[in-house]
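User: Hello, can you help with two protein structures?

Assistant: Certainly.
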Amino acid sequence: MLQQLETLVGSDQQQLLRDIGRGIEKESLRITPEGFLAQTPHPAGLGSALTHGSITTDYSEALLEFITPVSTRIEESLATLEDIHTYVYSQLGDELLWCTSMPCQLGNDADIPVARYGSSNVARMKTVYRYGLGYRYGRVMQTIAGIHYNFSMPQDYWKRAWAAEDSPGELQDYISARYLGLIRNFRRYSWLLIYLFGASPAVCGSFLRNRDNHGLQPFGDGHSLYLPYGTALRMGDLGYNSDAQKGLRICYNSLPNYVETLRSAIMKPHPDYARYSSGADGNYQQLNDSLLQIENEFYSPIRPKRVTRSGETPLHALTERGIEYIEVRCLDVSPFSPLGLDAVEVRFLDTFLLYCLLEDSPPCNEQEQDCMAANMEAVVNRGREPGLQLRCQGGARTMTDWANELIADLEHIASALDSAHGGSAYGESLREQAAKVADPELTPSARVLREMREQGQPFFRLAMAYSRRWADHFRQRSLDPETAADFDRQTQDSLQAQRELEAKEDISFEQYLANFYGQYETLPQP
């Protein structure tokens, strides 16, 4: 790692660290003033969820998603996210944004509206995909929110690193291989992020109303369910998991193998899903009856990504043009921050991801994949348990010993980032995380349970109080006229873009799907 780090710490090279790109995607449920899931359609004042660049929806019609553009400055990304929240609140009427990953009070599955995007083929495909998710996993899953963190190294870094290794192969292939190395290391060590930032140790009882085998314990009067040492329950069996997907072995040792594993899961029918219609007589309950309808149905804590062209599949984009950035998907929405995360967390993420990139990352086998999965499950369900043991090559070790070792290794990265940016903010963020390892009571998951106990409140009441607090924060904040006008333009432009897309549609939905899935058949196989 230290040799790799040298590429970034010279006086003429520190700009490479200042040019790290990041983008944030943050999800929040719209709720009524009483704390129930909003049944209203996507607010007209927020434009088209299909074509708006900053504000869209994810699974449920009520699950808003806010997207910041790629930026090299943390402060700029967070300021943009704050502006988006402020603008959204100006259009919500009396509705609120729910401030945690696990949802508000829920009714039955039929009361959870599936996201809709209009009448175009791409819009219909997005909606049918979500209907398929509802049939396969239950619509209640479509109310879980998270934060996705997109991370990329500047092109100048890749050119220098490639040259330092005597320019092996093609630059595009070198970049993809290095990003896959980052992903393998991330999967080895991402349990640390779950421990440090997990903020969902409890759920409202309504979330599991029709499920008995959840393994959670009643909290207080039973309106909440929890695990005493749980950290991020949405990343465990309560999230998008299925027995069918558990047998899916995704390989990150090479891009062709990754692409082929997912391609195969998308193209081969799966008997568990044959009972749902995939277009017979025009009835689409799902896009297809394969294990995965599309790539996004594989819910990994991290994904290799490439911006796609119109109508292009993600796997085709990766095959043609390589990995462009990675997307971290295991972050909870924190109720203790108005944005759901803060600069301290972002700085640690940058430090951690840079370590995963620079540290040696050997290929992994199925045995190591089993270890990764077991460690993630252990920290999700028992992360703050005293003496918790994790699996590693050669046996087991306590989570705290391993976490302290990782944080010590991260000091070199944090120091380099502080040197590049000036100041000590990265080192301070690292020390804040080290304190959480020393004292589990400092973690967000412990704080959630502590405040529930001290205030005598179930999870719903605690989250509702924070949701109202942050609603007041954003409603009292105003946008400068130029920023407000820009959001207004985005709203109108997105509505016009949707109308134009719908007006020029010239093929049937069946042909659109045939064209889309035909791309998988032409992908090269390893």
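That covers the first. Now for the second protein you mentioned:
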Amino acid sequence: MGFGKGNHLHLVDGSAYIFRAYHALPPLTRKSDGLPIGAVAGFCNMLWSQLSANRTKDGPTHIAVVFDYSSKTFRDAIYDQYKANRPEPPEELRPQFPLTREATRAFNVACLEMENYEADDIIATLARQATEAGGDVTIISSDKDLMQLVGNGVDMYDAMKSKRIGVEEVEEKFGVGPERVVDVQALAGDSVDNVPGAPGIGIKTAALLINEYGDLETLLARAEEIKQPKRRAALVENAELIRISKRLVTLDDHVPLTWSLDEFEVKEPEPETVLGFLGQMEFRTLSKRVADSLKVEAPAIPDAPVSAAAAEAAAEVPQAPFDHAAYEHVRDAEALNRWIALIRERGHVAVDTETTSLDEMRAELVGISLSVEPGQACYIPVGHRQGGGDLFGSSELVGGQMALDDVLSALKPVLEDDAILKIGQNMKYDWKIFARHGINVAPIDDTMLMSYAMHSGLHNHGMDLLSERYLDHRPIEIKTLLGTGKSQITFDQVAVDDAVKYAAEDADITLRLWQRFKPNLHRAQVTTVYETLERPLVPVLARMEMAGILVDGQVLSRMSNAFAQKMAGLEAEIQDLAGEPFNVGSPKQLGEILFDRMGVEGGKKGKTGAYATGADVLEDITTLEDVAPQAARLASSVLDWRQLSKLKSTYTDALQTHVNPETGRVHTSYSIAGANTGRLASTDPNLQNIPVRTEEGRRIREAFVAGPGMRLVSLDYSQIELRILAHVADIPELKQAFRDGIDIHALTASEMFSVPLEEMTPEVRRRAKAINFGVIYGISGFGLARNLRIPRAEAQGFIDRYFERFPGIKTYMDATVAFAKDHGFVQTLFGRKIHTPEINAKGPHAGFARRAAINAPIQGAAADIIRRAMIRMPAAIDGLPATMLLQVHDELLFEVDEGAVDSLIAAAREVMEGAARPAAHLDVPLVVDAGQGANWAEAH
């Protein structure tokens, strides 16, 4: 009997389950191999709870779990910025995605996903089919995007809150019924999914407008009637974006599914299958619950083998409980002196600062916390104010605080004492705060960097995560003190009593993490990595960041104006080529011009009828032989317009806001533990991604200038990753070519294409260069075909020939992947470990994990080499009138007195070219190119 009246279908939003489980539960790893499984555990528990409830007489007759197939769907063709702001999933969550699919099937539940569609679209389609067949539907989710489906036999259930969501709950949330939810969402937009909406209009205003005018189209048609000028302008000027937004948020309930509703009938799990999976995951408690429910015996799950090091670590003495009431509020010199005596007695102290901002160059010091023993911590407030102050900072300090100068004077001898170790979590931040007050903190330890050395690739290294994972303690959340959004305050406005608990806890946690991590460095065999590549880099980077780089705001302003004028000229040219005016920034209008009016063939429409006009589509149009020249020129001009638009908004406009008013310089911040491979990441602003492949992009570097009487000097490793590849893969031809100074790309082209070096053409060399660099990053035949604009078969032929000519590279790749599968990590020449938890995954993530494992030792070794150079550099250039300012991938940038340029280049080059020694002896020389000029563009 088919699905129909009397049947009840439960549709579980699987992707939402995963993320909610991940964020709601503390981290968990499988003991046998360290695989992250916290989200899988939460998912399995939620799914089993759902299935248990299903077994009641009121439970559903049918059930399915629906997942997102990937991040790319038909909506990307509608709006190429859709979900562009979404961060990549956390590293430790990625290997858990395929496991949740396995879990679903193990519980004998239908597991659904479909390419080009989101889970929400599949749910919408199944809900429509089920209600049309006469059945009822419950969607197990709290996702607001699914609320448009509620009503007419469909409701929702928030399993985390045990709360039903019906029509009334939807109206309470959106101010309109389910049938008008998409209209409200189209107006309000969604910053998470990057749905543009109408600027300045939120949910409440959107609901007010829709209720007044009835629906979105009527509202847009009558927008000129709206009295409020800003609201009227937002609707009139953004009508097309609002319509695009509606298409983005409207779920497609006619997905061409291949499943029938009958396939989702509720079935009992097969005991052997489900218990086998749970045993594989080492879920003892859930295995017992499931086995009891199925009336079978729970299989024994053996304890994972424990290494001697792990057993030693597990035998550590349990820590004292966290007791916020025991933390001390230091109010006077007597109490502070008592703490200083304790610090001198112990010989170490965990220290943390509280400030008004994350920008260390502008932040004001609000308080300092100290800890010398687990559970024994204090907070010294120095800058808490009542009322928060006004624009002139006239608010008064609250009572119970010491004077800032008195506190710093008392602590300075301790913080600078070589006999006392200062311990921090992300110590670079605190180092800079103290340095701005004349204190040079040394020596230091950093728990964030200890975790990074031991656990790179397994998880991030923020204090909250480390505390939950390694101390089983969830710290006080900062948002409980500061609030969020427009009402958010700064830390100087937090009540002192609350600040004591929060700040002292930070120092307490840091000390406990240090006690746990420090002895485990040698057990993990990464002591050398931490002591030679991580810890010594902290003061080097801190000084670079404080030095900053001088930026000429007038140059940026002129560039912004020039870009704006050039964009206007391109717009006129584009509209002239089109034969009519249109919004160049509208993908929909552009698609209609190209494919409908100009007759370009091959246009692909999404479900909403809009053509895809992404960069890849436009680039294809510019190169296809059968495209009319006018259309090719239009596509090319749009690409140029988009590039200028990005340069203007991301760089020439935005960089001006990052200039520190006191120094006139831009002070970027480097994340030491941001990338798994050891590469540094630059933020606020990101100076590592300034484009250099186009003339306009290169010109942005002209705004970075040297001070009066100074020059900027750039030193850049030449092809360092290819040199490391030649060494680690032991390729005789490539190693000899690097020794002889031969053009490596020309040599590769000669070897592969049988072209003598003296007859080499730029095009053949370009192809070889693309293959050389592509191989390092595990490029596929498809990727190389797109890069070179050649047929895929021809590109794959190039790659196959490359491996035939240089078989050592394929041998290296296979050996590296095998090592990763056996050990769960790969390693650089300098001992850095990069864990590879996804290496045994199956499905779409398998290829990514394999490529990452192959590339990590090469990219990681290059990162280690430039770190070693940076750490040695201050001593090498001591005495020269020069300052190291920036690190950008394989390049170091200095500011130096005009008369000392040659001396600086000679000293810095010697350090950089010898940076691998003595830890590693490379079979190829490291070569450093140098340049100098009045600005960065001239120097590089």
